[in-house]
Specification:
single chain, alpha/beta, FAD/NAD(P)-binding domain, Methane Monooxygenase Hydroxylase, Chain G, domain 1, 3 domains, 6-stranded antiparallel sheet, 5-stranded mixed sheet, 37% helix, steroid dehydrogenase activity, acting on the CH-CH group of donors, flavin adenine dinucleotide binding, electron transfer activity, Succ_DH/fumarate_Rdtase_cat_sf, succinate dehydrogenase activity
């Protein structure tokens, strides 16, 4: 990567020139950089707001899952069967599903060889277990910190190759000309100054656009920057599709798997400090209050099809926290009411699971210690002792299943702009647990291959031409942030920032109110139109937050448009319950009444969203089918050599 200078508005800025820029330092971005280098494409650089930030490095669950092709004896599987499972989740394009299946083993074994400690039996088989939305034992895990191990191993590989990393720098704007990437703009947090990038390819690995919500299980510092891609003309795909689930609040963590299968007691505290166990009061029988909780371990994400089953738990927690404004906890220290007299009320499935795990013992904490001690130790290291204190929880956004629309090479509709990991909208409505980690690795691999072996060559823009593109695309507006800097700071936009996030969590998450989403969309659009006025006088220290705020407004506009469009066309579906009015529901009878008769409508459709000048427009299209491959070896071999630019 070359360094130079470029003059804007009388100021000299650092100009970085590089063939391919990778934005983001999670397991997707690091794998893209690592793979590009291995393919011989080494004029690359990785830019990140913080090398130790992000979802990959800082999140997990009871045993964080990596979903792949089955690799153990006794488990029949094939690439086509895995592709069909991914495709049948709804809202998934067949070509990306086939690529994720085909590259699954290749990506998994790379991680093994880099040192990720996925367990094997004594013969070396990678045995698996069943996860949600799948009936095969394709899932594996290296424990609660699987993605952290992946990220660390990939970072070590990137550093061994001496790939350049620009840390503490936010990329906030993409520059595009004639439908192709020309560069990007960033802000160096160390120097408090703008920087510019001139490049031919950009790989966005910025993660999920979680900053649109207040209640999320994403780690602090993870915001996503989907808005800059939408503003540049990249299309969104399935922006309405999210996963919501029960998570801890003070230390953000997914409370799936064993945390639920040990059946903790759910308690709430009202404004008077009165504490009570609340699940039995909502459900038809006391037994349901533990059997549905047990099932949450397998069926952790909220699902409209399971409102009369395990997902009623999410709805009740939402009702207690949002509608009744109570604080809700999981209590692992005491038995729930249904188990006070033993395990007689357990379903056969729950009883057999505990018995097989040698965990038919008293109290949730002792069951958790028996089945998954690491899950307890994880919280203990954060200063939370589950054996002594209740765990504060809420229903939070955990994963976005939508993102930027990509093709089978993870390239967007903008030439040279790729989206990998959670930034890409490849997951659809229902994805088996753990597919995100496989998709992140495969998407990065596919993008790297496509860039490395591209036959069409483009050259970097000349400096003056590049400067003209930047000015035409509004860089002057951003430079005024420093020019107008009074040093006083401006907290006004921060209050609005937080208020809009809270409104999204209240009316546009697991529970989506059509009337209130329309109102919120108008408020967000108005705020975006007056952004530059609101940003006047912002201090240099606040510029990063200000840039993220603008990106959030763009993303919220597009996401709300997709949600409203989806609500009108599809109604309740997948991870979202759509309400037509503003009524507040309180009782179990109300909850059961809300259960959709069929939420699988339009599973063969994808909603695409285009953003233009503070507005968004959504449309629905058929999914691309799974390709029928010609697998005659000699034909494939010749095509492979041609793609690689080699001759037999």
């Amino acid at each position: 990567m070359q360094r130079g200078q470029i003059e804007f508005s009388g100021k000299l800025l650092t100009l970085y020139s590089v063939d391919t820029l990778i934005v983001g330092s999670g397991c997707a971005g690091l794998n893209a950089a690592d793979s590009l280098f291995d393919f011989g494409h080494q004029d690359i650089a990785l830019v990140t707001e913080g090398i130790n930030m992000g979802t990959s490095r800082n999140t997990g669950s009871d045993k964080q899952t990596y979903y792949k092709l089955s690799l153990a004896s006794g488990e029949s599987d094939s690439v086509s069967e895995l592709a069909q499972t991914l495709f049948s989740g709804g809202g998934v394009n067949g070509d990306t599903a086939l690529a994720e299946a085909a590259c699954s083993v290749r990506s998994f074994i790379k991680l093994v060889n880099l040192g990720v400690p996925f367990p094997t039996n004594r013969y070396g088989e990678y045995v698996g277990y069943t996860t949600d939305h799948d009936n095969r034992k394709r899932a594996t895990s290296a424990g609660p910190l699987t993605s952290k191990f992946m990220t660390e191993c990939l970072e070590q590989s990137v550093r061994r190759k001496q790939i350049e990393i620009l840390d503490e720098t936010i990329v906030f704007k993409l520059l595009v000309e004639d439908g192709a990437v020309s560069g990007a703009a960033g802000f160096d947090k160390k120097k408090n100054e703008f920087v510019m990038f001139r490049c031919k390819n950009i790989v966005l690995a910025t993660g999920g656009h979680c900053q649109i919500y207040k209640n999320t299980v994403y780690p602090p510092g993870q915001t996503g920057m989907t808005g800059m891609a939408l503003e540049a003309g990249a299309e969104g795909a399935n922006l309405q599709e999210w996963q919501y689930g029960i998570a801890s609040v003070d230390f953000k963590w997914n409370l799936s798997g064993t945390y639920q299968q040990v059946m903790p007691r759910y308690i709430s505290v009202d404004e008077n400090g009165t504490k009570r166990e609340f699940l039995p009061g909502y459900l038809k029988s006391v037994a349901d209050s533990v059997n549905f909780v047990f099932l949450k371990g397998y069926q952790w994400p909220f699902d409209t099809e399971k409102i009369c089953g395990s997902s009623v738990i999410d709805f009740i927690v939402y009702n207690e926290t949002v509608n009744k404004n109570r604080t809700v906890y999981l209590d692992f220290t005491c038995e729930p009411t249904a188990l006070l007299n033993g395990f007689g009320d357990l379903s056969q499935e729950a009883y057999t699971y505990l018995k097989s795990s040698d965990a038919l013992i008293k109290t949730p904490i002792h069951r958790l210690l028996k089945m998954n001690r690491q899950a307890v130790e994880l919280f203990y290291r954060q200063g939370i002792d589950l054996s002594r204190e209740p765990l504060k929880i809420t229903v939070a956004a955990q994963h976005t299943n939508g993102g930027l629309a990509v093709d089978e090479n993870w390239e967007t509709n903008i030439k040279g702009l790729y989206a990998v990991g959670e930034a890409a909208g490849t997951f659809g409505t229902y994805r088996p647990g753990g597919t995100a980690l496989n998709a992140a690795q495969v998407g990065a691999l596919r993008a790297a291959e496509h860039i490395a072996y591209a036959k069409e060559t483009r050259v970097l823009k000349a400096t003056e031409a590049y400067k003209q593109i930047a000015m035409e695309q509004g860089m002057d507006d951003f430079f005024r942030l420093t020019a107008a800097n009074s040093g006083r700071g401006n907290v006004g936009f921060k209050k609005t920032y937080e208020a809009l996030q809270a409104e999204m969590s209240r009316c546009a998450s697991m529970i989506r109110n059509m009337i209130e989403m329309e109102r919120l969309k108008e408020a967000v659009s108005s705020e975006l139109c007056r952004f530059w006025q609101a940003a006047e006088g912002v201090s240099a220290d606040d510029i990063p937050a200000c840039l993220k705020y603008r990106d959030m407004l763009i993303t919220q506009t597009a996401v709300l448009d997709a949600m409203i469009f989806s609500g009108k066309k599809m109604g309740s579906r997948g991870g979202a319950l759509v309400l037509k009015d503003s009524k507040t529901f309180w009782s179990a009878a109300d909850i059961l009444h809300l259960a959709p008769k069929s939420s699988n409508a339009f599973c063969d459709k994808i909603i695409y969203t285009t953003y233009r000048q503070a507005g968004a427009d959504s449309r629905m299209e058929d999914v691309r089918p799974i390709p029928k491959s010609d697998n005659w070896f000699e034909t494939v071999w010749n095509e492979f050599l041609e793609r690689r630019g080699k001759h037999a």
